[in-house]
Amino acid sequence: MHSLSKTLLFYLTLTVVSIGSAHAQVTYFADILGNGFKQATIVQPADYEGSVTCTIIKKQTPEKSNKAVLYVHGFNDYFFQEEMAERYIQEGYNFYAVDLRKYGRSFLANQKFNNVRDLSEYFADIDTVLSVMKAEGSEKILLSGHSSGGLIISLYAAERNGKEMFDAILLNSPFFDLNVKSVLKKTAIPVIVKRAEKHPETTISAGLSPLYGESLHKDAHGEWTYNLGWKPHIAPPVNFGWIRAIHLGQLKLSQGLQIDKPVLVLHSAKSIDEKKWSDVMFTGDAVLNVEEIARQAQNIVGQYSIQAIQGGMHDLILSRKPVREEVYSTIFNWAKRNVK
């Protein structure tokens, strides 16, 4: 991690930009993905852990386009999905992603991975990247979020009603409910949430099986290559503050979220709960309860569509190839009607 921190600090010294203006000039450098991807580090105001950054990653269409997508990753994650970016580019979208504060390219030595006390802390990162996208000529923007990124952008969209810098929202298996037994929701979660008010740094296991990560990574059973330091098979412990932030965000959703832009909610047709490795891991959502996603999505107040994907994995665009082809077809057919 020491060399990783040095690399990030190197980029930091090169790519400091002011976020005070939507028209700030951002200096890009070659991204770790290569293949024409570029990145820029944005320095944000410090928080309770000290220095904070987020990272813009982008790749543009060969021909000039005024359409763009901004992708927001999930928990224990960062942007690495090159195939997704290329599909958007083929459809005429300039592609942007953000590694949120304390994730992936944005992680700093003074920080704990994923550490947040309120999901609104991420709004500054999203505002900044959308402002840069607008300044760079994006007139029509699809805001896309996966898992916790889906919950974050849903809350963000409701908070920005009337001041949106985006035109439609895509939610890929959004983290709309804690996938724990109902007895724990009624007993343990309230205790943790209460304790988090005074002791947000207390940690607890994230409770995620390594099997999902093994179903994705090329070195195990999957077909994708990514940095296991930034997206390990076993997620690092989470703070009570993070659990409280997620709980309060989901509670806000359950009370109704007014979103004034079109929303597409995609999720797998079934959840799976394997205890040991089998190819069943390729056939469903091994992280979230898809029935709860569909149920909670109905608390969106506005124009929304919900669609189940047969055979979809948790990150739908990392599913087996025939399934993700259906996912892309669904996304782009919907986008043609809603991102104009």
Automatic annotation (TrEMBL):
Signal peptide positions (record): 1-24
Natural source organism: Dyadobacter chenhuakuii
InterPro entries found in the cross-reference section: AB_hydrolase_fold, Hydrolase_4, MAG_DAG_Lipase
Record protein name field: Alpha/beta hydrolase
Pfam family, one: Hydrolase_4
Serine aminopeptidase S33 domain sequence ranges: 65-268
A GO molecular function held by the record: hydrolase activity
Keywords assigned by UniProt, alphabetized: Hydrolase, Signal
Entry-linked PANTHER family: PHOSPHOLIPASE-RELATED
